[in-house]
Structure formats: structure tokens, C-alpha cells
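Blinded run. Sample ID left blank on purpose so nobody reads anything into the name before looking at the predicted structure. Input follows.
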Amino acid sequence: MQTFKWFGKVLSKQLKQLRLVILSDLHYGNPYCSEKHFLRTVDWIAGMEDCRVLLNGDLCEAATRTSVGDIYEQIVSPKAQKKQVVKWLLPIKDKILGMTTGNHERRIAQESSEDISEYIAEKLEVPYRAEGMLYKLSFGDN
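Blinded prediction complete.
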């Protein structure tokens, strides 16, 4: 039996509005991934005091020999993908509320038992739950 688990955070009472950005489907490693647009988004988030982020999977392409994606077309290995994604997200790590995984990261976990999303979440020190999360946020006058 799986136990019910929820996550939450109380933000500043001075915060009168909140911009919640869901980052997903970067597919870093895919030759068509737009690093420029992703980094522009990270810079925008970093400059917005009222912005918080949830990471929702498929940040890495993570192609394997048996997956639909082509392992030989990836621009870097899955190991390098996860490390680069962490580097890109470090400037906003304090704004990231939590992380789930995507099917691209899940296929690596199924083949090798390595959870790329868990690695990213640990390095960023954010809550992680592969199958999704229920999240309660409080801010302003609650």
C-alpha cells in the first residue's frame, strides 16, 4: 500500500502575487533542444522575485539503445545531460519547489536502475517524487 504524501512551502507574507513556472520537456541531449531559450527562461525566472518553479520531467533526452529516440543522435551522453541540467538550474535552485520525472528519464531508470531525475533533485536539494506530487503553497496573507 502506497502512503499518501504531500509537499508544501510557506513563502513570504510580503509576496502579494505568485508566478508559477512549470519547466519540462527540455530534452537536453536532443540535437533540436534549444539551450538558448531554456537559459533565457532561467534568467527571466532568476530576475523575478515572485516566481517559483516546478520541474516536471523530460529535462534530459536520455535515449537508450532500446528507446524510440536515437542514442547516436544525442549530442552528449545521459550522464553529461544530467550534470549540465543541474549546472543550468543552479542559479534558480532556491526558487524550485519540487520535481517529478518524465518518460525520458524513466527509461534510463528501467534499463539501469539509475534515476536521473532523482540525481538532479538531490543536487539541487529540492523535493522529489517520481510519480507526481501534491503541493500546497501559502504566501501573502494566506
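Unblinding after everyone has recorded impressions. The first helix runs from residue 35 to 46.
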